[in-house]
Automatic annotation (TrEMBL):
Keyword Glycoprotein carried by entry: no
Pathway of action: tRNA modification; wybutosine-tRNA(Phe) biosynthesis
PROSITE patterns: SAM_MT_TRM5_TYW2
Catalysed reactions listed for this entry: 4-demethylwyosine(37) in tRNA(Phe) + S-adenosyl-L-methionine = 4-demethyl-7-[(3S)-3-amino-3-carboxypropyl]wyosine(37) in tRNA(Phe) + S-methyl-5'-thioadenosine + H(+)
One GO molecular-function entry: tRNA 4-demethylwyosine alpha-amino-alpha-carboxypropyltransferase activity
Record region (Disordered): 56-75, 431-454
Protein name in UniProt: tRNA wybutosine-synthesizing protein 2 homolog
Enzyme Commission number(s) from the entry: 2.5.1.114
Domain SAM-dependent methyltransferase TRM5/TYW2-type: 197-506
Length: 511
């Protein structure tokens, strides 16, 4: 294995060397000659420089190994992918394969490779291969055969390997690499591998509940190169707990790579952010789409928890909002938000208010307020009431995690079998079609109503509380109306992230 030989021990031999054991000429990859022939710049057999796909030779205590690769042996990721193989003449391939299979030595994850000199290389499980196996191959299985051990630096995955899931591939590559480092692969290590992750372009974000066993520590940092190589990314990060301090900072550590900036394109909107500093919830996609479809032309909006612009941007780009005041207190999120407003061409229609939104100086300006904070945005309710237009009122979109109890399941009313099958989250859940104060929002087509009683109860209590706040803030009575309750995602067992659309209008003065 590449890990068993130091760079100093490695020498390349030219591809035209037809006799495997004859070292026709050397390329010293550590000499600073850039991998060129160390003997002569016009070497008779190769013209002085390695072509693509050259042979290379490793010398280790265990004997001599040839290596096959395309390019520098020190290239990124190359050493993780290397596999051990046994080389022989093509006519002995079948006998070799049968023997290796019987001995449980055959590596089924990689294809047999054809070498430039006409021999074939059968990938094997290098950790289990012993000198005695080679002797048997040479003397008993196929007398007279060439039998040498090599390394395939860039092995081609077999059909079987290509069809395995990313998690299986990860397990395979990591276990192989770990054993190559002399560490016994165990059920404990296997159980500690990640089952799922977030892929942000070429950055893999692992959850906190994996790679916790202490054995991994000794295998860092190369372990992360193996993980990256197995899953086809270049950077790896791992999340800790989301900080409970209100900034929702996810405590992400970068394990491989030099920065955590990533980009997502979602519904035609570009979002850039640093995963080590800001959160991104894939689960909010339905709500982002819904927000994008709201009729917000000529409206002024306040987004009290703007983050990197998850809702601010759809409001501006798709819903046609005239202007958004975006509040955010995490400086890293503000940097990303500013960038995202610019790259989406809407910076001139947004003002960022950096700091605690509870101290916001704005009042009487908003047609609509977005309160996108879970588990609860309740601390933002007074300021939301304060920014609503005094004479016209507006709509609040209030996010909340609501707990419900097992056994009391969602009750789709009057939905077809088909709809029941696709439950739990149709587009419209509760829609109040009351006649007073109808808006573009409440006139939208309704699908069969369905709810959990706990959502309805929470919505009603929120409505009562907001009505009280509005009266206190504006010094006059307001009427409120539940327009809609939208489930966003299941946050935890029996906990749903929902959004209440609450219409708030000042009561007309009587007399
Ligand atoms: C959950 S993120 C919201 C992002 C987006 N709305 C979403 O759901 O994906 C909440 C954001 O609100 C910010 N935040 C929380 N409390 C705040 C406050 N009092 N003032 C300003 N920003 C606040 C956090 O820093 C965070 O970026």
């Amino acid at each position: 294995m590449a890990a068993a030989t130091s760079p100093r021990q490695r020498r390349r031999i030219c591809p035209q060397a037809h006799q495997p054991f004859v070292l026709a000429c050397h390329f010293d990859v550590t000499s600073g000659s850039g991998g060129r022939c160390a003997r002569s710049s016009s070497c008779c057999c190769c013209g002085g420089g390695p072509g693509p796909g050259e042979w290379s030779l490793s010398e280790s205590r265990g004997g001599t190994r040839r290596e096959w690769g395309t390019g520098s042996m020190e290239r990124e990721g190359g050493k993780n992918a290397a596999v051990v193989a046994v080389v022989t003449e093509p006519r002995f391939t079948q006998r070799y394969r049968e023997y290796l299979e019987k001995q449980k030595l055959l590596d089924r994850q990689h294809r047999v490779a054809k070498m430039p000199d006409g021999t074939v290389a059968l990938p094997v499980l290098g950790e289990a291969l012993r000198e005695q196996h080679l002797r048997e191959l040479r003397n008993c299985v196929a007398p007279g055969s060439t039998c040498i051990v090599t390394q395939l630096l860039h092995p081609v995955p077999s059909k079987k390997a290509q069809s395995c899931s990313p998690a299986q591939r990860l397990c395979l590559e990591v276990s192989r690499w770990v054993e190559g480092r002399g560490v016994t692969w165990s059920a404990e290590l296997e159980a500690d591998l990640p089952r799922s992750w977030q892929r942000h372009g070429n950055l893999l974000l692992l959850s906190e509940d994996c790679f916790q066993a202490k054995q991994w520590k000794n295998l860092e940092p190369e372990l992360w190169e193996t993980v990256a190589s197995a899953l086809g990314v270049r950077r790896v990060a791992k999340r800790g707990r989301v900080s409970p301090d209100g900034t929702r900072t996810p405590a992400v550590t970068l394990l491989l790579g030099d920065h955590g900036w990533v980009e997502h394109v979602d519904n035609g909107i570009r979002y850039k952010f640093d995963v080590t500093q800001c959160m991104f919830s894939f689960g909010n996609i339905t709500e982002k789409l819904r927000v994008a479809s709201l009729p917000c032309a000529r409206e002024v909006l306040v987004d009290l928890y703007a983050g990197i612009g998850y809702f601010t941007l759809p409001f501006l780009v798709h819903a046609g909002a005239a202007f958004v005041h975006a509040c955010e207190w995490n400086p890293h999120a503000v940097v990303a938000l500013r960038t995202n407003l610019e790259i989406n061409g809407v910076a001139d229609r947004c003002q960022i208010h950096f700091g605690d939104n509870r101290k916001l100086k704005l009042s009487n300006i908003a047609d609509r307020v977005n309160l996108g904070l879970i588990p609860s945005s309740e601390e933002g309710w007074p300021i939301a009431c304060q920014v609503l237009k005094q004479d016209a009122g507006g709509i609040l979109h209030i996010h909340q995690n609501v707990e419900s109890f097992p056994g009391k399941n969602l009750q789709p009313l009057g939905s077809s079998e088909m709809e029941k099958e696709h439950w739990p989250y149709p587009q419209q859940i509760i829609t109040n079609q009351g006649t007073n104060g109808a808006t573009g929002d409440s006139r939208r087509k309704t699908l069969p109503a369905a709810t959990k009683p706990e959502w309805q109860r929470w919505a009603e209590s929120a409505e009562t509380r907001i009505a009280t706040l509005l009266r206190q803030v504006h010094g006059k009575p307001w009427k409120t109306q539940i327009l809609h309750i939208q489930p966003v995602k299941s946050y935890a067992p029996h906990v749903d992230h929902i959004v209440l659309d609450l219409e708030c209008r000042p009561c007309p003065l009587v007399g």
